[in-house]
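Troubleshooting: if your tokenizer reports a length mismatch, compare your output against this known-good record of 392 residues.
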Amino acid sequence: MTSNEIKALTGQYIMNTYGRFPVAIDHGQGATLYDPEGNAYIDFTSGIGVTDLGYGYQPWVDAITAQAQKLGHVSNLFYTEPPALLAETLCKRTGESCVFFANGGGEANEGMIKLARKYSFDKYGKGRATIITLNNSFHGRTITTLMATGQEVFHNYFFPFTEGFRYADANDLTSLEAAAGDDVCAVMMELVQGEGGVLPLDVEYVQAVKKICEEKDWLLLADEVQTGVGRTGTLFAFQQYDILPDVVSFAKGIAGGLPMSGIMANEKCRNVLGPGTHATTFGANPVCAAAGLVVQETLSEAFLEEVKAKGEYLRQGIEALDLPCFGKTRGMGLMIGIEVKDGYNKSEIANKLIENGLLVLTAGPGMRLLPPLVITKEEMDKGLAIMEKTLR
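Known-good structure output:
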């Protein structure tokens, strides 16, 4: 099919819930994508942080093929090898104690919220279920995770929303203390606010929140749906904050492009969710888990150091261009935000770049870049050249 045929068919038969860019993608290699007509696009998006191994990565393709031929699905009523091996790897690499596998980021955060509330109910009874989240946060699009999201714009249409959330300002302990109370059971935060504009939290603040949680027996919940699986230059962002959260959610890059997510819990929380308290039909799918094992094998410590170096190279390259529409960059690893100066429109910038062969994202008030972790220097340089040619 041609690009126009794909767009027309999509418009006729798929719900119009996305503001799509006018590009149809047919295939890819490395960090470069191609439309049906063969036009190339340098990918600085990786499917919104999902395709961390890029496109056409042969070990990933081989693992999926082999597992699909062996067993595609059997349900969590039985045991299978790939998710057990993946859970073991994640726990040994992070210091967490156990894993629950799900399918998407919103579902993972739902599970994390349920665990926190049950932990408190089991220990203290009813009336201690409120979770503090941060203003400018984003935690998903279910009824509950929309309310957990600290942005008023998301609290619309789908009334009534789930109760039990209060909001505090990021990097502000006074604001957190004002939101505290005897009804609180947990604090939930993104260590880098992704949808809010790629805004890393201060290390001192996060460590102070961890201490408060320990003193009050609140759970510290880390939403690493976007920051996890190597995106920030460590396997999980919390490892750069020198903390061990009570529960961590993950998704996006965990299976390199297949739908998979989950939560990890520490020893204190490992037995909170027992049989019958939480479940999912497709979670721990063996094909997705086999893909996840390849991701883990690829994300060695040396590879993760390269992610940090690539992120620094790309940020320095963008700032060196000194483009009139861009200000400073920010972020961690290959999770990069770019300030858009007053008088310029981020959506117009994104559309111009995509039109000229560079796929980018927006977030909050600026631009967001999430390239595949395997992106090469040559591909980054091509992307920078498109930026300069388009936006100079």
